Amino acid sequence: MKYTCPHCGEKTYSPLLKALCGGFSSSGKPCPNCGGRSVNGYLNLIVNSVLRLTALVMIFVSYFKFNTMKEVLLWGALPLVLAFVLGFLFDMFFGKLTEAIKKE
Fold this sequence. Notes:
The protein has one domain. The protein has three helices and five strands. The chain has helices spanning 15-19, 42-65, 69-93; strands at residues 3-4, 11-13, 29-30, 37-40, 97-99. The radius of gyration is 17 Å and the shape is elongated. The two termini are 28 Å apart.
């Protein structure tokens, strides 16, 4: 499965390369065909923001609600790790690539 480059219109991005492109704040990854840099689009930005905000809320809730360090780590650190893993998987398989705004 390949993803379409927004510059040349060819299906040149593998899922792993697409996930490593990053968001709008990064300079993106170059297309293997044309060399144009691409990043993940707005949908990926929204999903990653919601996942990380949810993890942040879980960290605060676990800090004030639980007493033992095991519970705090389970309900605080685990959602943070899951947010990054799910965000990476979402970047890998969903959303569209857009042209990078930031230059190297």
